[in-house]
């Protein structure tokens, strides 16, 4: 059992439980704010949160705004919990750790590619607005129905979880293992 690495225990149940509000919002929140409460919520999102950001649909702008703000605001905080669980489980059982057989060019190119991918995902989530109802045929279905938009947003939220956890592993766990040559075990 010493030479065999144990798979990392990822809290899938927690991650999927955090997707439930996305689907609840798609069924409960109206397409446009039609009452005093929803108008106040709309103003609150514009004033104190991110407003119209990420992915949206002009066919149901208010629903899309609520879902996009939920995904953009809560995912980084919920990912901290996932990182703590994954960090505690990221113990490699081999005595030698990861063998440093990667070339400098390979490490530089993968690091640059990973940084660019992360920057693209951050840009798409927080600094741009993409209307899925005006998109090409492949993504247009996600902009026509609130349920499909919620499905797309849930997949996007899982992708954000994945990219945040991979950043943690790539930029914290692996360098520790390579440089210190022993398993990573946070206190």
From TrEMBL:
It comes from the Bacteria. Keywords: Membrane, Transmembrane, Transmembrane helix. The keyword Membrane applies. The chain crosses the membrane at residues 12-32, 70-92, 104-127, 147-179. This is Uncharacterized protein. It comes from Serratia silvae.
């Amino acid at each position: 059992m010493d030479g065999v690495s144990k798979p990392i225990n990822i809290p899938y149940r927690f991650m999927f439980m955090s997707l439930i509000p996305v689907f609840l919002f798609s069924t409960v929140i109206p397409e446009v704010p039609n009452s005093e409460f929803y108008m106040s919520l709309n103003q609150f999102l514009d004033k104190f949160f991110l407003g119209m950001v990420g992915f949206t649909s002009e066919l149901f702008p208010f629903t899309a705004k609520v879902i996009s703000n939920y995904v953009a605001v809560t995912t980084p905080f919920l990912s901290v919990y996932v990182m703590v669980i994954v960090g505690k489980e990221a113990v490699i059982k081999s005595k030698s750790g990861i063998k440093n057989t990667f070339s400098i060019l390979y490490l530089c190119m993968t690091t640059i590619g990973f940084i660019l991918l992360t920057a693209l995902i951050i840009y798409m989530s927080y600094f741009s607005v993409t209307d899925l109802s005006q998109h090409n045929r492949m993504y247009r279905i996600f902009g026509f129905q609130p349920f499909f938009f919620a499905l797309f947003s849930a997949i996007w939220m899982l992708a954000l979880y994945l990219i945040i956890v991979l950043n943690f592993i790539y930029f914290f766990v692996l360098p520790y293992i390579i440089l210190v040559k022993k398993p990573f075990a946070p206190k």
